[in-house]
Amino acid sequence: MVQAYILIQTEVGKASTVAEVISKLPGVLQAEDVTGPYDVIVRAEAGTVDELGRLVVAEVQRVSGITRTLTCPVVHL
């Protein structure tokens, strides 16, 4: 399994709604609204890097209110 943190910037006032919608997507382990330069942080997993990419592009980025995402794959060094 491949896991990643997805850092999300949203439109003003949309963070909690975005986190709630994303938390229900398959492959999403956790979605929380936070403070700082990003508004929502998501932990997600998929079987492969390609599947993770499809989750981000086809599912996460389609959620209304998102303005920008940054995907950070988890590595085990």
From TrEMBL:
InterPro entries named in the record = Dimeric_a/b-barrel, Tscrpt_reg_AsnC/Lrp_C
Q: Any coiled-coil ranges, and where?
A: none
The record's Pfam families line, in alphabetical order, gives: AsnC_trans_reg
The UniProt record lists the Transcription regulator AsnC/Lrp ligand binding domain at 6-74
Q: What is this protein called?
A: AsnC family transcriptional regulator
